[in-house]
Each structure stands twice: as structure tokens, then as C-alpha cells.
Amino acid sequence: MCGIVGYIGDKDAREVLVEGLKRLEYRGYDSAGVALLANNRIDVLKTPGKVTKLEEMVSGVQQAKIGIGHTRWATHGEPTTVNAHPHMDCTGNIAIIHNGIIENHSALKTKLTSLGHTFRSQTDTEALVHLIEEFYSRTNNLEMAVRFALKDVDGTFGLVVMAASEPDILVAARRGSPLVIGLGESENLIASDASALIRHTRNVIYLHDNEIAVITRNDVALKNLDDETIEREAEHLTFDLEQIEKGGFDHFMLKEINEQPETIRNAFRGRLIEETGISNMGGLHEVDDKITNAKRFVILACGTSWHAALVGKYILEQYAKIPVEVDYASEFRYRNPVLMEGDVVWAISQSGETLDTLAALREARKSGVPVYGIVNVVGSTIARETDAGVYIHAGPEIGVASTKAFTSQLAVLNLINLLVARKRKTISEEQGREIVAEMRKLPGKIQQILDNTGVIESIAEEFKDSRNFLYLGRGVNFPVALEGALKLKEISYIHAEGYPAAEMKHGPIALIDDNMPAVFIALGDSTYDKILSNIQEVRARKGNVIVIANEPDSRLKELARHIIQIPKTIDILSPILSVIPLQLLSYYIAVKRGCNVDQPRNLAKSVTVE
Ligand code: G6P
Fold first, then answer.
1. Which band of pLDDT confidence, cut at 50, 70 and 90, is reported for residue 606?
2. Cα(204)–Cα(183) distance, rounded to whole angstroms?
3. CA 412 to CA 427: how far, in whole Å?
4. CA of 74 to the centre of ligand 1 (A)
5. Going from the N-terminus, what domains does the chain have, and what CATH number goes with each?
6. Which sign, positive or negative, has the C-alpha torsion 559, 565, 568, 573?
7. Which ligand 1 atom sits nearest the alpha carbon of residue 302?
8. Which residue puts its alpha carbon closest to atom 7 of ligand 1?
9. 393 with 329: CB under 8 angstroms?
10. What is the pTM of this model?
11. Ligand 1 centroid – CA 411 distance (Å)
């Protein structure tokens, strides 16, 4: 995710900013920049790539005692120099760094362009700096200009602004994106997380939503957007750097699992239209017709992304009534696949760099069919080589075992399904509205699961020494069973297999004895009764049954050794909830076995070899 650092004080701001940005590198980024204010002039330096590159550039400019710096993880616009932060207003007076998304940036841009402002980048952030410039021209006061501007903004922000004409203050504001102020001796700092400032101070004030901070060398004043003063005591940070980077969690994987309410919100942000029950994805606008009129979708992916693709097949065939073929990217390439006119190929990849997926999409392109991407990393090779696509906006995923990217891929596949199904009229407007309403409820439901992990931890304790696990599900939750088994294999090195529940009797049932835990996904859908029979088959052979369920009835309670209850949603969205206990179960088992959760043996986050 993007990182923010701002400084005002006696030290050389160039050094403080670069060092702070280095501390934020762990969050992932694709470009970096600083703005330095001295002698009533702001120098802006930016570059795609690493902070070390920026460091070389910075040594060549004037020293400054005030400045702002940013690492950008691209969302709107490629990771180029011009799209990197800080962004400047037209006159070169005001500089801004911003985390978050300005949802109404297009409308603001139209309005500001008509008022004579010139835009240089493709970012949503630039609208913000021109808006502040507009108010500054009327007020001549940076704090007021920021306050007025923010009243016109929809979306999320953590931002810091400075102006050459007011060289003694930084103005910061927050809604949805964290900011923490560091209080020093004759200096103050601000950053998106405390790791960037604890080298200088451990006394901090956290900014809350809808608050503005005016930061000078010796003072910090907090206000709300209505200009009312807010008093807040400083806190003293006692935890170490590594803990801060992991957001207080023991591992990146656990942090990322816990981010899912937010990442799902981000995947849907600005893309759901309540009134007409349809979705809207900027990256697909120009190819809308091709998608709607496609005769077949072919989805290519590897690993966890392949499981997401399988869920997509169930969803799209059921609702959009479009035939979907899902292929391992590595297999697709070498089996002389038949692609025809009317086919649309999709590549799903978290990293956007997986070589097998990349090679497969290049192979597909040779047939002349359109190839679209569902990717997390903006500007990655797959994102660049596809004709169009949708970013999942899950933010950087550092744990090697994919968690939040998987649920965001499912969220985006659901958005695509909604678009296609509504356009093909295979679902009504009313049904579309119901789906949108259920999508909106997902973050809250994910949070409910995350707030109740006690039972999962105790199951992990009981089964941590098992040698084998079976995961079983039906329908749209069959691929979730595969994903649950993969997660366990990846990080705990326990052998695990996923199967469609009914397929168990055709082989895997031979493995079942009182040592074998079997994890069932048995939600209250049309397959519930059938799954109960499958559970009975396992129980009859003394297998230990763990069940992910919505509202367990007495039959289930009698059969299951453990039940993990999750909130109910509609079937096509249920994998976004049912996979979360499975992620947590793997996590806790791996931790209890003493495994390296974030960097499991033999695995790589991004596999760029065949
Ligand atoms: C590697 C990772 C997996 C991931 C797969 C596909 O094997 O360890 O977690 O699912 O690559 O990666 P992608 O970035 O293309 O989704």
C-alpha cells in the first residue's frame, strides 16, 4: 500500500524523508517521490522503482527543513514518474501526498478543468491538489483551503499538503487511511504508519477520521472538518519496528487475513450501482460488448488464483449462463488449445508476473481472441499485456500463501458476473439489486468471523499433529475445499486434499479412519442434505468431522465433532466467507507446529520461472 512521511524541524528533511520511506518499503510500492520546501520554492523529485534511486536524486537538490515523501502502490494510472506523488497544483505552490481513493475524481476533474486547471497525471489524487489550489486562490490560507476542499470529496484519504507560500506548516487530514503524528524536540513528523517515525520519536498522536492536523516545528493542532478544536493526549509507543510493520499481528499472513473486510470494500468501491443492480468497472468499459456477447470464457491461472477461477466458473455459468472453461495456465500452453471466435480469455493473477500465466495468455493472443486480466499489482506484466482488465485492489500481499488476494479475486469475479448477467438479461434488475445489497454486507460478515476465532484455534490445537486432512465441499464451495487444502499444505506441510464431497466415495473414503480429520463446508444451501449424507459416511468410518456451517441443525450437531459457524449470504458470495475459517485454521495449525508462516519452505510469492 502507499506510504506517507512528512517532516518539519531542524534536521535535513531529505535524509529524514528518504529514511522514512525506506521504513515503509515493506508495504510494497512501485514508485516513490519527495517534495522539499526551501527558499520559498518546492523541489519535487519522483521516480518509478526503488527508494534507493530516489535517494541518489535527492542528494543533488537544496537542503530543506520541511518536506513530504511518498511511496506509491498504483491504483489509478500506471507506476510512472508523472503518476508518482507528490503532485503539484498548476502554479507550483502546493504539493500533496495522498493514500486512499478519491471516488468522485472524474467529476472534480471535469469541473476543475473548466475552471482552467491543467492536469498532468492519470491519478485520482491530482484532482485533490487542484481543488485545494482553487480554494487557496480564494482564501490564501492552506488550512482553510484543505478543509473546504475535503467537503467536496467522496472517498478515502490520508493526506499531507504543504505550500511554498506558507513554509512553516504541514496540513494533514484523514478519512479511512491511517496517519500518525510523531512529536519530537523542535521537530514533528507525520506518517502512514509509525515505523517511519520511531527512529525520531516514540510519542505519537493518531489522527482519527474526518480530522485535520496543522503541524509546525513546535506544535500540532487538531481540528475536525467543521473547524472545531480537538484535544488528544499523546501516546507512547512501546512495540518494536517489526511489530509495527505487521500492524500488531504476529505474521503478515494473519494481518492480511484480518484486512479482508477492508480489501473486499476496496474491491467493490465505486463499482456497485445500487439503483439498477449492476456493476461498473472502468477497466472494462471499452470491451463491455465483447464480454457480454462472448460465446465462452476461458480462464487461465495458477495456484490460488486457479481456485478463484473455478469459483468463477460456477458463478458465471449459473447466473450469466455463459460457458466457462478453467485451465491451469501451465497446461493450456502445451495442449494445443482450441480457441474460437466469440471466446474471451481471462488471466487471473495476484502478482501479474507468474510466468506460466503470462506465457499462456501470450499463447492465447496468437489466436486473435481478446485477453483480459484480473490482477492485483497495477502495471505488472500481465496487466500490461492484456487488452483490458480489472484490478482487485487488495494492496500488497506479503505472506507467500495468498489470502486476501483470493477473496478479492472472488469479489471481482462476482462483479463481472453481475455485469454480464444483467447485460445478457439472465437475471432481472431486482435480482441484481439483491446481489448488490448482499455484496455490501460482506465486510461486516467477514468481521464477524474474524471476531470469533477461539473455536478455530482450539481445533488447530487438537489436530496440529495430524498427518493428513481431507477438505470437502460441493458446488461453488468445492473450489473452496481445494483452497483450504492448499493453504494447509503450503504453510504447515501437512498432506491435505480437497474433493467434491460426493466424490469422496469414489476413492478417498478408503483413507478414512479415526486419525483422519475431514473438513466439510456445509452451508444451508441446496446441497446441504446431500452433504449431511457425506458427513454420515465419514462418521461411520470414525473420521473426525469439522464443519463450516451457517445455522447448524440438530442432525449436523450430532455428527460433527466441531462446528465453525459463519454468517449466511447468497450462494455465489458464500466462498468469500467460507474460505476465511480455512485460512485461519491453516494459520493456527502452522503456528502451533512452529512453521515459518510468512515464508514457507520451497515456495515463492511470485513464480517467474516455468
Ligand atoms: C505461487 C504462489 C501462490 C499463487 C501462485 C499464482 O505459487 O505461491 O500463492 O497462488 O503463485 O500466483 P499469481 O500471482 O499468478 O496469482
1. confident
2. 6
3. 18
4. 20
5. 3-237 (3.60.20.10), 247-451 (3.40.50.10490), 452-610 (3.40.50.10490)
6. negative
7. 6
8. 303
9. no
10. 0.78
11. 18
